[in-house]
């Protein structure tokens, strides 16, 4: 199905940009939402049917104005893709409390603001799709990502609750990718932050975008890649063992980083 009106938050970022290009290729009218007007305008010129709409999803008043503008101009929204968000690496005691709050605002409450603002209009029409870009970190705790995990756990719970409350009129899909090769890593290798079995499975944004579009037509909770999906299943079946194994992998990574940080001349005269 094409020709839908689709809104994508965080549209100018790695995953968002890939989603936008694929939506345009399908013939959808795509509304590009983000905070950086210049980046949005550049992207809008790249895709047919794309329109830049500046909005900070953490600001409820801006979201309300955006929704009013969309409904006034187009009369409806068929699909909402909540992609905006960010993450901070660091130990639980190292990350500033301001970043804990910031990640919750962007990753969770931003999606809540957008969803709750558009839901009444979708319900009035009797149909609508919401796709939330979460993370595998929303399904299991991860060392050095406590605040990020908490925000994605919240997004998962909110998404499941919406699905239970409003299906079949409103269908909610959630994509939970493993590490993605985006500016999230700030130019560093994923192996700096994740044990080798996880870092080797880092996904390109194009793959994540393709799976996100599939969730529009078949909404559900989906973990990618498949190998990490199986790991999450094992975690549900054997939680205590999974926590021990995860702890061991990250402790090994920590020791490797500590060893590499020691000068080869240390201890020599």
TrEMBL record:
* Organism lineage: Bacteria, Bacillati, Bacillota, Bacilli, Bacillales
Q: Would you tell me the protein name for this molecule?
A: SDR family NAD(P)-dependent oxidoreductase
The cross-references to PANTHER family, in alphabetical order and at most eight, read: DEHYDROGENASE/REDUCTASE SDR FAMILY MEMBER 7B (PTHR44196), DEHYDROGENASE_REDUCTASE SDR FAMILY MEMBER 7B (PTHR44196:SF1)
For this protein, the record's CDD domains field holds: SDR_c
Q: Provide an example Pfam family for this protein.
A: adh_short
Source organism superkingdom:
Bacteria
Species the sequence originates in? Polycladomyces zharkentensis
Q: Does the keyword Oxidoreductase apply?
A: yes
Domain Ketoreductase intervals = 4-183
UniProt-listed SUPFAM superfamilies: NAD(P)-binding Rossmann-fold domains
UniProt entry keywords in alphabetical sequence: Oxidoreductase
Q: Does the keyword Hydrolase apply?
A: no
Q: Note the InterPro entries from the entry.
A: KR_dom (IPR057326), NAD(P)-bd_dom_sf (IPR036291), Sc_DH/Rdtase_CS (IPR020904), SDR_fam (IPR002347)
Its family remark reads: Belongs to the short-chain dehydrogenases/reductases (SDR) family.
